Amino acid sequence: MHVHHFSVSLAQQAAQDDKFFRNKLISLLWFGYQRGQNCGGLVQGPNGTIESPGFPHGYPNYANCTWIIITGERNRIQLSFHTFALEEDFDILSVYDGQPQQGNLKVR
């Protein structure tokens, strides 16, 4: 049995702190190496929560989840991971500043 889950809270910030991403669009990709169930969505507004399917229990094998986070022009996005567990060697989380393209990759 695989137990993988995560919960992310996000908040828009107007502060000029380097901890926050500067652009108004963040793509958050989370998936296993093989295709399976798709999940994800669009998050807009001053704050929100993203959870894997089945949270707090394990997510489906081969899940492919993409969340797009959009905020206003002068706002920044802060990601806070409160609970995070992936199946090592199989699953990854990627954060892009803008569209999910290699040049926009911030964290993997």
TrEMBL record:
Which Pfam families does the protein's record reference?
A: CUB
GO BP terms, alphabetized: negative regulation of inflammatory response
- Alphabetically ordered keywords of this record: Disulfide bond, Glycoprotein
PROSITE patterns with a match to the protein in the record: CUB
The answer to whether the entry has keyword 4Fe-4S is no
Domain named CUB: residues: 39-108
Kindly indicate whether the keyword Protein biosynthesis belongs to this entry. Answer: no
Looking at the UniProt record for this protein, which Gene Ontology cellular component terms does it annotate, in alphabetical order?
Answer: extracellular space
Name of the molecule in the record: CUB domain-containing protein
Source organism of this protein record: Neotoma lepida
User: What lineage is on file?
Assistant: Eukaryota, Metazoa, Chordata, Craniata, Vertebrata
